[in-house]
Amino acid sequence: MQQEPSIGQTVHYVSHGTPGGEYTKQCRAAVITQVTGRAVDPATGDPTDAWVVGLLVQNPTGVHLAQVCVQSEQSHDGGTWHWPEHVTSLSDRMAELEKVVADLAKRVRDCETGFPGMGRLLGGGL
Ligand SMILES: [Zn+2]
After folding, report:
1. Which of 5, 20, 36, 113 could potentially form a cystine with 52 if both were Cys, beta carbons 3.0 to 4.6 Å apart?
2. Cα of 111 to ligand 1 centre, how many Å?
3. CB 68 within 8 A of CB 17
């Protein structure tokens, strides 16, 4: 599903980094200041899925305005923007872990049922 950008939303801007690699490309928080429209495929002249927006880029050391930024969700090239990467919340991760633990406990119970001696071994404080 492609979300349409609108003014005031927070996205990620990819900083350029330096050619020598002293600074690498980094995601920076940015606020959309204008929505220009769909980017056009230069080969066909047709509109693409990517949006062109203006951004207020917030670097740790200062802010700058980038008026023409093209969306790039796949390749995070310098100077492009993308929707913030999905961050799994702690409670989601806990729920996943609880599922894994419950599954392991079930497997141990299955082992005990299948091999009664195994249960004694597992419970025998080895
Ligand atoms: Zn990002």
Report:
1. 36
2. 45
3. no
**C-alpha to C-alpha distance for 80 and 48, rounded to whole angstroms:** 15
DSSP secondary structure letter of residue 15: -
Length of the chain (residues): 126
Question: What is d(CA 123, CA 126) in angstroms, rounded to the nearest whole number?
Answer: 8
pLDDT single digits (tens) 74-95 = 999 999 999 998 777 788 888 8
Tokens of residue 62, six digits: 């200062």
With a threshold of 0.70, does the pTM exceed it?
A: no
Q: DSSP secondary-structure letter at 71?
A: B
pLDDT digits (tens, 9 = 90+) for 12-51: 999 998 888 888 899 999 999 999 999 999 899 999 999 9
Q: Any idea which residue has 């796949």 for tokens?
A: 74
Distance CA 72, CA 58 (A): 19
Q: Give the distance (Å) from ligand 1 centre to CA of residue 29.
A: 8
Query: DSSP characters for 84-115?
Result: PPP---HHHHHHHHHHHHHHHHHHHHHHHHH-
Nearest alpha-carbon partner for 5 in 77, 82, 73, 67: 82
